[in-house]
Amino acid sequence: MAAIRSKDTKPEMIVRRGLWSRGFRYRLNHKRLPGHPDLVLRKYKTCVFVNGCFWHGHNVALPRMEDVGCKKDDAIVNSACCKIPNTNRAFWVTKIRRNKERDREEQQRLSEMGWHSITVWECELTPKHREETLASLAFTLNHIYFQDHIVSKPYVSPEEDPLQLSIAAEECGQ
Ligand SMILES: [Zn+2]
Question: Is the pTM of this model over 0.90?
């Protein structure tokens, strides 16, 4: 289990350096945004959260409280990167569930404020996966920017398309 991490955790530093070296600029730990995102990229209207797998319950199916410690709980498969200890299991399940709910609520609020949220997981930043993760993060940011700034032609639905309408009318015998 990971120790309690301060704000300048190693995973976060990897993301910072990775984005900086690719030309992205950001603010850190924005206090006025929900969830105090680790990195805020205003130009991309995106918040990046660098999450520890254990504390934020990466890929873990949490048991219902009434199932903690019984057979059904045993059937719950812990993910590779988030193993809930058997000691004080109810405490950890409660805590991690609360963290996950809070993450979801905060990202929902950010979304309502017009912000995109990207979560980078600790396990995606191991030496083996790091480059791929950072490249994919950069790609996603550029994609978001493109989507938000390129004004595309207005979409014409088939119902509004005069050609489609006339075909439909013929088919109906009108
Ligand atoms: Zn993970």
Answer: no
